[in-house]
Design goal:
It contains nine helices and eight strands. The chain is of the alpha/beta class and 262 residues long. Strands 1-2-8-7-3-6-4-5 form an eight-stranded mixed sheet, with helices on both faces. It is globular and about 55 Å long.
């Protein structure tokens, strides 16, 4: 599989090809990456403001971000992407949340196969420049100030999108974490899938190559020694209260993180 948009579907697995990295990218991987990423975001925001930023453009931007990471020496691996196609109709994709990278990378993997959007924090639709991109994707926005209202908005917004055939990506953790804590991983994704009558797809990811910054969390150092991983599990049908499906999701994340981090 190559990261090109003229392919109608992906192969099931992907591993970044071996390539030579230029001296500038080797010496200054963070600077090199952010220069390219900034160009991608500004171009996408310009198109979004003009109302011409559609799913294909979103996929292309996401593709360009992945290419920019590979350009500075970060290796990317994707497993079992066919799981997206195994779900008939819209679905809820539930995964752990580690860095800014998954918000940028997942559209390229999912959008060509299913219409999709995110549940996002309010700051992402207020962020300078990037807000135009995010707003154009019709996300479900939560403010994190009133948990009860956030829950109501999340459920209602998700049901509305799913009914319209748009899949949802949910990160149930309260914040981005390099270490996975099941106690902080709630079952909101499973509950939404149950209410909507759609399958849920577990997603394990390791994206700390784009690390969290100390002053600006979204702009941490790029760590070329850390590989990026995405692993999808086959769709699950929610049964009963969904406790068994929640356990499968948690186990999928823990098993893969142990493998990748070990």
């Amino acid at each position: 599989m190559r990261f090109e948009l003229d392919q109608p579907l992906f192969t099931n697995n992907y591993v970044s090809p071996e390539k030579r990295t230029g001296w500038f990218s080797r010496a200054f991987p963070s600077l090199s990456f952010y220069m390219k990423a900034t160009d991608v975001v500004f171009s996408a925001a310009s198109k979004a403001k003009r109302g011409i930023y559609d799913d294909k453009e979103w996929s292309q931007s996401s593709c360009d971000i992945i290419k920019a990471l590979e350009h500075v020496g970060v290796r990317v691996q994707v497993e079992n992407l066919d799981a997206i196609l195994k779900a008939e109709g819209p679905c809820v994709i539930v995964g752990n949340h580690m860095s800014t990278l998954e918000t940028f990378a997942l559209p390229f993997m999912i959008s060509p196969q299913k219409a999709v959007t995110f549940v996002v924090k309010k700051s992402l639709v207020e962020y300078p420049v990037f807000k135009h991109v995010m707003r154009s994707r019709n996300p479900i926005v939560v403010g994190r100030e009133n948990p009860r209202e956030d829950l109501k908005s999340m459920i209602n917004g998700s049901l509305e999108r799913l009914k319209a055939g748009i899949s949802i990506i949910v990160f149930p953790q309260t914040t981005r974490m390099t270490q996975f804590d099941p106690e902080l991983f709630n079952s909101i994704g499973v509950k939404i899938a149950k209410k909507a009558g759609v399958p849920v797809i577990p997603l394990a990811l390791k994206t700390d190559a784009w690390s969290n910054g100390k002053m600006l969390k979204d702009f941490g150092p790029i760590r070329t020694s850390s590989e990026v991983h995405f692993s999808f599990a086959d769709p699950l049908t929610i049964e009963g209260n969904g406790a068994k499906q929640q356990e499968v999701i948690v186990n999928h994340i823990q098993k893969n993180l142990a493998k990748w981090q070990g």
